[in-house]
Amino acid sequence: MALPDIYNPEVVEGVIARIQKLSADTPPQWGKMNAAQMLAHCNVAYEISLEQRSPRPGALVRFLLRLLIKPIIVSEKPYKPNSRTAQVFLIADERLFEVEKNRLMTYLRMVAQMGPAEFEGRPSPSFGPLTSQEYNNMYYKHLDHHLRQFGV
């Protein structure tokens, strides 16, 4: 089953409506992050792909990531609760809820405005070039996973 189209402004506004239901004290149903940390964690995917903020892994690590991790990340299959995450996505310090929430909503609207053509073949530091559908799956699935984590 295809995931919702994160390039569609209506889908984005639906995701944003879910984000708006969060508060700084919304408790997680699993995991260790609070709501602000979760939003910051979700922002990392956009920082990496839109702002190239992540160092490129070495050749061997990239090979292993593409072989073993990429299929999990870009598929339509949902993540399981308490799935492991890459070191770059770990958020241990406290974050400002409203700042992280606004950043995430801005990134979502930016992706929709850019559209799928901007993401077709766009290189990922970890996975190499991805299709716009792989970016869609990665973005939507990750957000949906964490919004479900917080019951929204």
Quantity of strands, as a count: 2
Tally of helical runs? 5
Percent strand equals under 5%
Structural class: mainly alpha
Distance between the termini: 21 Å
What level of helicity do the residues show?
40-55%
Protein described:
The protein has 152 residues and is mainly alpha-helical. The chain has one domain. The protein is 53% helix and 3% strand. It has helices spanning 9-20, 35-51, 59-74, 97-114, 132-149; strands at 123-124, 128-129. Strand 1 (123-124) and strand 2 (128-129) form a beta hairpin. Helix 2 packs parallel to helix 4 and helix 2 runs antiparallel to helix 5. 26% of the residues are buried. The model has no long low-confidence stretch (mean pLDDT 94).
Give the helices and strands, then pairings.
Blueprint: H1 9-20, H2 35-51, H3 59-74, H4 97-114, E1 123-124, E2 128-129, H5 132-149
Antiparallel strand pairs: 1-2
Helix pairs in contact: 1-4, 2-4, 2-5
Summary keywords:
152 residues; mainly alpha; 5 helices; 2 strands; 53% helix
Q: What is shown here, in short?
A:
With 152 residues, this protein is an all-alpha fold. Helix content is 53%, strand content 3%.
